[in-house]
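Thread: "does anyone have the structure for this chain?"

Original post by V.I.:
We have the sequence but no experimental structure in hand. Need at least a predicted one for the grant figures.
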Amino acid sequence: LAAREGKLRPEGGGRAQMCGIVAFLGNDDATRYLVGGLQRLEYRGYDSAGVALVHADGAGDTYFEVVKREGKVSNLEAALPKEPN
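Reply from O.Q.:
Generated one for you, tokens below.
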């Protein structure tokens, strides 16, 4: 599990934007690790969260599933697929 924080400044100054990134690479249930990492970052006051999951179908093709929600990480967690990824 890796977490990284970045602070970006818009051109011309202004308020800094913050983001938290959590990544998981493995064969276990990714959503469990991603949600846990995002929950650890939630205290920083983020207003939304999202995940991108990579799936493989039976034909050997891969595709991304992107899920995003505003508000608490629990909103995102409720919208995620229930089966392991």
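V.I.: this helps a lot. The chain is about 20% helix and 40% strand.
O.Q.: and The helical segments are 30-41, 73-79.
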